[in-house]
Amino acid sequence: MIDYQPLYNILLDAKADAWVKLLPGQIANVFNSTKHGTLSQWQSVIENLPKLTTTHRLLDADAVQIGQSDNLPEADKMELEQRLKALHPWRKGPYNLFGIKIDTEWRSDWKWDRLKNHITPLNHRLVLDVGCGNGYHCWRMLGAGAKMVVGIDPLLLNVMQFQLVRKLYGEAPVYVLPLGIEELPYGLKVFDTVFSMGVLYHRRSPIDHLMELRDCLKPGGELVLETLVIDGGLGEVLLPEDRYAKMRNVWFLPSCETLVSWLKRCGFKNIRLIDVTPTSIEEQRSTEWMQFHSLKDFLSAENPQLTCEGLPAPKRAIIIANNA
Ligand SMILES: C[S@@+](CC[C@H](N)C(=O)[O-])C[C@H]1O[C@@H](n2cnc3c(N)ncnc32)[C@H](O)[C@@H]1O
């Protein structure tokens, strides 16, 4: 069980009383629910994890590292590997846990490398990572000096993967809460840096998403936004008629210029496009730890510049901006 009291204390200090009133109920609603078929199995995978201790923790490396291979007898290592595999598929990483290398679907470290030298240093900052997946980037943010990192993600498997990793790491000011951004209270205005990476195109209303992100930031705070974009000029946006790269839940893919104009309209200042990178089949691929189809299966067999639906293949932009 994670002790959330240190999180509440920091939020109270930051005057987020309204959220602290809501949070215990929000967390209990999810974890005490019997509605989710597999949740209790995942919880027992984590609860029955043998007590493993290590002083080896490395958060500023490509793979988040906890423990080393020779910290564990072979039998314990095999058991840990089995428990990790019970939480398949592992999409975001990589991790190296007591010598077990979790080669995840995504090389999420590549995204981190693209942005880490452009953001305001995270030292002593309160950070929110919206749609944080299993929390891989939250660990990297903590490793970059953040005072506290709060990730939110509504997908419970992600939250359980985080909880397993955190149990191996031990107490730390990093939390992944089982919430969507729409469940945060209005007018939060508490975080110094807010990340939204890979989320905007999943939202039916991208403008509302940008306003929600702004609402989480202190005045002057920094937004780090990463999303799918298309080539094109001001005003150009792709709204797929149906699926995009086989995903059902993809809505708006703006051109970079359009995205910048949306941010301006939402009141952001100092807007900087820092990176545009096409996603490669080396960055997103099937592995032993994510055995389902991946990017290569979602692209056109004849033309890898197109998705299998004939739309522009995934290209991602990173934009940094400040709350006014
Ligand atoms: C493409 S993944 C990106 C993960 C990570 N941020 C990254 O960049 O590697 C999108 C994540 O957003 C989460 N998500 C979807 N709807 C959300 C919402 N309403 N609020 C917060 N997160 C959401 C999904 O569960 C998923 O983990």
Summarize the structure.
With 324 residues, this protein is α/β, with parallel strands linked by helices. The chain has helices spanning 5-13, 17-31, 39-47, 74-85, 108-115, 136-143, 156-169, 206-216, 256-265, 295-298, and strands spanning 57-58, 64-66, 92-93, 95-97, 100-102, 106-107, 126-130, 148-152, 174-177, 191-197, 217-228, 237-238, 253-254, 268-278, 315-323.
For the terminal residues, how far apart are their CA atoms?
Answer: 39 Å
Order of helices and strands: HHHEEHEEEEHEHEHEEHEEEHEHE
Helical/strand content category: alpha/beta
Ligands: S-adenosylmethionine
**Segments where pLDDT lies below 50 for 5+ residues?**
none
Biggest beta sheet attributes: 7 strands, mixed
**C-alpha geometry:** globular
How many individual β-strands? 15
Q: How many individual helices?
A: 10
Tell me the helix content: 25-40%
| Mean residue pLDDT | 97
Radius of gyration: 20 Å
Q: Give the spatial strand order of the biggest sheet.
A: 9-8-7-10-11-15-14
- Beta-strand proportion: 15-25%
